[in-house]
Specification:
The chain has 334 residues and is an alpha/beta fold. The chain has 12 helices and 13 strands. The chain has a 7-stranded parallel sheet with strand order 8-7-6-9-10-11-12, sandwiched between helices. A 6-stranded mixed sheet has the order 2-1-3-4-5-13.
Length: 334
């Protein structure tokens, strides 16, 4: 059984190769899976995809025709995979249902602190030996309110850090997390959370029900000096609406590790090209906005867990087992 892994980062490659060594041959590619690259998987029974791969109906049909039997996604999110088509084609699909929540939660707070204390601007100034403090004033977090939208494992980790800062805690989710309640979190309606919070961080999956959960009305309801953080999925925020509000001079800071049109941009070097995405081009010009390239999960701890889980998914597939990672099980043998 041969494995091909798409969208493999340079730091990730040795971890994948070491994990599969002595088990099955693995071919690592830095290119992302899409309709143009899918034919490269021909003859490989297992395809490992990254979060920015495109696994729509056309790609899945190409993979199935080439002999692929298992899609092993190296992420928790799977909104990039057409599961219904995969099921119809008899493809097994697995993901990584868990990895270090601290990697994302800590990075979310890194973004929040960076925009609050104007770290990027300060760093750029000192490189030019400009040591003025003008325009660098931030705010204490202690005593202010953190609003956490989505209080699962990552949201809980974010909440624990907020608790350590001495912040008031508001939460919104379909179900309360007892651990967050124990920390003093008060669960409220989303509208109330948006109005009252000084720092708002998003930790929900991208589903039809959460697409643009932060739209025009939600953005308008936030405090003018609020800090908005998204380290989950870009589609949670209506980016055009966000740009409109930023042009009105609103928000103390916005930290985005994800972008709703990031496919084909993030994880790639576009520095010598003309980026045609006008919305992103406008977004990065605002002095109170910090955009990073979907790196919140990117620690040796989290990536190591992702790779180990991917190996386990392949083992389970070969043994005919299901697990909590299985999204589409193997078709029953006749």
């Amino acid at each position: 059984m041969e494995i091909i892994a798409f969208g493999v980062q340079a730091d990730e490659k040795p971890l994948i190769e070491a994990a599969f060594a002595g088990r099955w041959p693995v071919h690592c590619l830095d290119t992302f899976l899409n309709e143009d690259t899918a034919p490269l998987a021909a003859g490989h029974q297992v395809v490992s995809s990254s979060v920015n791969g495109i696994l729509d109906a056309r790609v899945l049909r190409i993979l199935a025709a080439g002999g692929t039997k298992l899609i092993a996604q190296r992420s928790t999110g799977f909104n990039n995979i057409d599961l219904d088509v995969a099921r119809d084609l008899g493809l097994t699909v697995a993901r990584v249902s868990y990895y270090s929540p601290y990697s994302v939660a800590e990075f979310a707070w890194t973004l929040a602190m960076a925009v609050n204390r104007r770290i990027v601007r300060a760093s750029a100034r000192t490189r030019d030996f400009d040591f003025r403090l003008d325009g660098l004033m931030g705010r204490d977090l202690r005593g202010r309110t953190a609003g956490v939208i989505g209080t699962g494992k990552i949201g809980e980790a974010f909440t624990r850090i907020a608790h350590g800062f001495g912040m008031n805690l508001l939460g919104w989710d379909v179900a309360e997390n007892p651990a967050c309640v124990e920390l003093g979190m008060k669960y409220v309606e989303k509208d109330q959370l948006l109005v009252e919070s000084d720092v708002i961080s998003l930790h929900v999956p991208l589903l039809p029900s959460t697409h643009h959960i932060i739209g025009s009305a939600a953005l308008r309801s936030m405090k003018d000096d609020a800090i908005l953080i998204n380290s989950s999925r870009g589609g949670l925020i209506d980016t055009e609406a966000l740009v409109h509000e930023l042009r009105q001079g609103r928000f103390a800071g916005v930290g985005l590790d994800v972008y709703e049109a990031e496919a084909g941009l993030f994880f790639l070097d576009k520095s010598l090209e003309v980026v045609e995405d006008d919305t992103l081009a406008r977004l990065v010009t605002f002095p109170n906005v910090l955009v990073t390239s979907h790196q919140a999960y990117y620690t040796v701890d989290a990536v190591g867990q992702i790779v180990d889980a991917t190996v386990q998914n392949v083992e389970d597939f070969e043994a005919g087992r299901r697990s909590e990672n299985t999204l589409v099980p193997a078709a029953p043998k006749e």
